[in-house]
Structures are given as C-alpha cells and as structure tokens.
Amino acid sequence: MANTKQLELFELQEKRRDMTIRHVITSPWEALDRVNWDFTGETTQYLTHTFHSYPARFIPQIPNLFIQLFTKEGDIVFDPFAGCGTTLVEAMFLSRKGVGVDMNPLACLISKAKTTLINPDDESRLLGSVSKLQEVFHLRESDDVPYLTQAGAFDDTDMKFPKRKISELFTPEIIDELKKIKEHLDELKDNQALFNLGLVALSATIRVVIESERRNGFFKTFRQKIRSMTYAFEETARRVGTSRVTVLQGDARRVALPAKSVDLIVTSPPYVNALDYYRVHQYNMAWLGMDYYAFRLQEIGGHSHFIANRFRLLSEYLGDMFRAMIEMNRILKSDHICAIVVGNSSLEYELIESHKFFSAMAKDAGFETRKTLFRNIDATRKYHNQDIGKINTEYILVLQKIGDAPAKSNNDAFVASVVRREMLKFKKRVDKNPGSSVHAKRLPITRIRQIPKRLEAAIATIEKDIGIK
C-alpha cells in the first residue's frame, strides 16, 4: 500500500519535476538532455501503481516526463505494449486520454483496475463483501472443521499446469480459500469495475503465495490487499477526479485504431529471450479462468520459442517488433514522438543490442531517431535471467515520425527484407567475434565455432519465422 511517507515523497518529486520542466519547457529536447534518467532513489510504488507486481515493468517517471514534455491536457497517449498499465496510469494522473493494448489478458485486467475509478458507495460495497467473507472463514475456524471436508477435494486435472502440479504450490487450505474467495467475487459481476478490482486483488495475493512461498494467512493477505487498493483509489480520486483511459486486449502488430489518431507513444516492449510472461502468470491466469496457452502462442520474444536455435527467435522477434513499429507510425500524428524503452539481451551467447536493431528498423517504418538516452537500472529493480545474467542498463529511443511507412504491417515480404538485412549485418559482427556476450557465461571453443552456422541456418528460414502465428 502507498503509505503517507511514500505519498509525501511522490508529491515532493512531482513538484521538483514540475519546476524543472517549467524551467526548460520552451525546449523539450533540451529537457531530455538535462534529466537524470536513472531516477536513483525515487519511489515507483505510489497510488494505483501498487496494485499488482509485474516483472520487468518500466518506472513511471519515464512516461510521466514524456507526457509532460510532449503533450497537453486532453491529448491521447498510447502504449502498444501496455503491460500493467504504467503509461496509462501516468496519462490519467496528468489529465490525458490513455489508450493501451496488450495480448496478455491478465495485463489488461490489471491496467483496467488501475485506471477505472470507483465511487465511495462502490468502495463500501466491496469492503462489505470482504467483511461477509471474513465471517465465513471465522465460522469455519470456530467450528474446527477441516477445510477440505467442507469444500470437497480439489481437482486440478482441467487446469493443465505444465511440469509443476498446483498442489506443490498451494496447500489444501489455500486452495479452499481461493475457491471461496473466487465464488464470493462472482457476486460482484453486476459491477464490472468492482469485479475487476476483486480479481486483481485475488491475483496479487496469488503472486504473494508464489513469490514468498507463504503457505498460510491467504485470506488475511487478500483482505489487506483490498483495503490498500481502496485507500489508493481514494488518494487517486483526490488527485485525478476523472479517468479517460481505454484498455484493449489486442495485438501491437495489428492495432485497431485509426491512422494519425494519437499524440504520443511511450512504451516498453518485451525483451527478446529475457522473460516468458505466460510462465510467470500461468497460475494467476488459470485461477482467473484465462487461457494462458493461447497467450503463450502469441507472446512476442518469448523464451519458449525456437529452443533448438535461438537465432530463429531473434528473427521472429525483429519481425514482430518491426510490424509493431509500422503500426505505431500509422496511428501516430505527423512529426509527433514515440519513446521506446528497451534493454540489451543475450541469445546463443551473443550480445543483442536491441536499441541498435530498433533504431535501424525505425527508418524503414517512417521514423527518425532523434535521441538515444542511456539509463542505469536501480539495483533493487534489476532483472536477472540465468541465460543472460543481470539486465542493469537500458536505453530510451526517442523517435519522431517524419513520414508514413512504405508498406503495411501485414506485408510479409517487406518485413522479411528488413529483418534479413539486419540479420546479415548481425552475422558480419558475429563472424568476426563469435560468443561475444558480456552477460552470459563463456562457452567451449567447439560450441563457439558452431554459432555462425546456427545463425546462417536461422537466416535461411526468415520468411517462415517472421509470419504472424
């Protein structure tokens, strides 16, 4: 929950940032150079940002500054990889219209809950519902009746969890509490905002169980989460008043928005080979009745794709991101700004400098790279992957739309030609120094010598691999 100290710190930072921006507002480009993009020590957990943990999300200070510098109140801010809604929440705070798209149904649910304000009467109804549920658990405890005797044995055969059974993560008591809470939340379905909020609280509580391996006090954690969320809404309503945010479950490669309709894009797309969002969220999604297998098939940059040859994953990823850039260009107004936050990665023991790939492809999508900003990631927020090590730095590409893309995002031949060019450039670098990753562990010389051949094999299948699945 965002406590008083956090909120005071947030307000102080906002005042300082406003003063800085007012000082250089006549030159937003100069302001970009003057900002310390590390934001060391600044709080990122305030108001509705606290609702749900989310892996590898970017800090709210980044969209906040771009929104202030390059838009005015009432403008439309778009995030094609909305995730948990960081850009959308900041757009709401700054009285802009926010539009977000994400393929992950859980991400969409979280974003909607964060940006849909509820009135005091609805808050009271939600808290009252939790109180009734509390009475149910108290009665069961006082009667000293075994949980599964009342609720019945849990059957997880239809949930189809891979590798690890649900019983290994959740005790019978937690399973029973989960079932009771979910059944109780169904009573709120007549109020979609309240129902979404309850589901996000339930999902956030499941994350606590998974991340901390806490095996008791599930309902207590859920109750605390509901209370902290309603408090955050009260504080948010005091600052915002209204919310004009739209969240769409959709595909960044095929966005259902009209051409030249948004004023600013701020986004942080998934990193290649760094994280499987479906794997992180599979238990949450299953409990909420979401099809995480379908999401897995569409996930961009997913670690589970092309396990036999990761260079094919790189081709797929570049194709997906280039299609997304073409769509960003299509819906962005002429001369307006698109800010993309991206970090380097590692794949087949080669350093993947994503920002360089993105900058090169941006030219083919009708953008000019105006600035490339570097930032260090705070030590407490670094993301670690056993294949690539710690991701401790990232780049902010500031692109300006200078024209329309020469082809549509569904033009496979055009997409394949750009990806092939970038992969061939990449191969030249690899041929000179294979096994160059600064993140991953060193390989035996015999394995290093195989890298150029594996890359060549991936280039041969580009036309097949860049197609939208």
Keyword list:
alpha/beta; Rossmann fold; 2 domains
What does the secondary structure layout of this molecule look like, with pairings?
Layout: H1 4-24, H2 28-34, H3 61-70, E1 76-79, H4 86-93, E2 97-102, H5 105-115, H6 120-143, H7 147-151, H8 166-169, H9 172-185, H10 192-212, H11 218-240, E3 245-249, E4 262-267, H12 277-287, H13 292-298, H14 310-331, E5 332-342, E6 345-347, E7 350-352, H15 354-364, E8 367-376, E9 383-385, E10 389-391, E11 393-401, H16 412-432, H17 445-448, H18 451-460, H19 462-465
Helix pairs in contact: 3-4, 5-10, 6-11, 9-10, 10-11, 10-12, 12-13, 14-15, 14-16, 14-18, 16-18
Give an account of the 3D structure.
- The chain has helices spanning 4-24, 28-34, 61-70, 86-93, 105-115, 120-143, 147-151, 166-169, 172-185, 192-212, 218-240, 277-287, 292-298, 310-331, 354-364, 412-432, 445-448, 451-460, 462-465, and strands spanning 76-79, 97-102, 245-249, 262-267, 332-342, 345-347, 350-352, 367-376, 383-385, 389-391, 393-401.
- The protein has 469 residues and is of the alpha/beta class.
- It has a seven-stranded mixed sheet with strand order 3-2-1-4-5-11-8, sandwiched between helices. It has a two-stranded antiparallel ribbon with strand order 6-7.
- Strand 6 and strand 7 form a beta hairpin.
> What number of domains?
2
Annotated CATH homologous superfamily of the largest domain = Vaccinia Virus protein VP39
Tell me, what's the shape? globular
Structural class: alpha/beta
**What's the β-strand tally?**
11
From the alpha carbons, calculate the radius of gyration and give it in angstroms.
Answer: 23 Å
